[in-house]
Every structure is written in C-alpha cells, then in structure tokens.
Amino acid sequence: MMELDATDARILTVLQRKGRISNADLSEEVHLSASACHRRVQRLEDAGIIRDYVALLDPRKLGRPTVVFVEITLSGQADEVLDAFEREVRLIPDVLECHLMAGTADYLLKVIARDTEDFARIHRRYLARLPGVAQMHSSFALRTVRQTTALPV
C-alpha cells in the first residue's frame, strides 16, 4: 500500500469532487506547481489509487429513479455455486452493485429501475433466473438521504 501525505490527500479530495479539473486549476487548489502536481497525479494513477475518471449521471433525469436493494441467499456455499451466481449477476445491466456478504444474506444487490413494474420485469427476466438462488428479499428505497462516491482520504 502506498503512503499518502497531506498533499496527496488534497489532490484526491479535489479530484473526487471535480474529476474534469485541469492540471493548472488542480495545482492552484492544492498549492503545488503544475509539474509537481502532474507528477503526483501520475504516481497516484500508476499505483492504482486513482482507478478511473467517470461521469456521474442523474438517474431521475434518465428515467431510472427507483432503487431496490435485493438480499439473496444461495442454496449452498460451494465455490462452483458462488462462481456461477457471480458470473451471471455481472451480466445484468440493471444491477449497479453486488456484494458478497457476511450475515443473514449471501449477496446484496443494488438495482435501479424505472418503477415497480420495471423492477418486476428485471426480477422475472434476470433475478429469478440466477443460478443457486434459494431466497430473495427486495426492499425499495423511499428516499436517498446520503449518497457519495467520494472516499475519505
């Protein structure tokens, strides 16, 4: 793991908020010369700390305001059951996140849909056909209180 100093943390904090900021503006915000700032960003990218740059889209403006959390319990814990499930769940375009869990469910999925009817379609077409599923419980988010992609640094 790479050691981060306060300057690296400032760079990462700014880039998480403003991924399209120019190097000149970034260097000004973090109080570095442009060349030193560029070298640090390059080092953070090379180390894999900065994994990618993305555009964050507004799901409401794209007609996908419904968020559903789906808890899935599998019929077994054998590697082949887990591998088959994970291979298939990666192919579902409406699944934004899939986490292997410790606790009551084996997996927790974050699914996005247009509305309850659209989620029913996703459930029928994809979720109900996932291999190894013994139980599934879905919870609809009523309101998002906090959402961020920024990691604390």
From TrEMBL:
Q: Which gene encodes it?
A: lrp_1
Instruction: Extract one GO BP annotation from the record.
Output: regulation of DNA-templated transcription
> Which GO molecular function, any one, fits this protein according to its record?
sequence-specific DNA binding
Species whose genome carries this gene: Boseongicola aestuarii
The record ties this protein, via InterPro entries, to:
ArsR-like_HTH (IPR011991), AsnC-type_HTH_dom (IPR000485), Dimeric_a/b-barrel (IPR011008), Tscrpt_reg_AsnC-like (IPR019888), Tscrpt_reg_AsnC/Lrp_C (IPR019887), WH-like_DNA-bd_sf (IPR036388), WH_DNA-bd_sf (IPR036390)
tRNA processing among the record's keywords?
no
Q: Which residues form the HTH asnC-type domain?
A: 4-65
One Pfam family, please name it: AsnC_trans_reg
Supply the alphabetized keyword list: DNA-binding, Transcription, Transcription regulation
Species lineage: Bacteria, Pseudomonadati, Pseudomonadota, Alphaproteobacteria, Rhodobacterales
Q: Which CDD domains match?
A: HTH_ARSR (cd00090)
Q: Tell me the domain of life.
A: Bacteria
Q: Does the keyword rRNA processing apply?
A: no
Q: What is this protein called?
A: Leucine-responsive regulatory protein
A Gene Ontology cellular-component term: cytosol
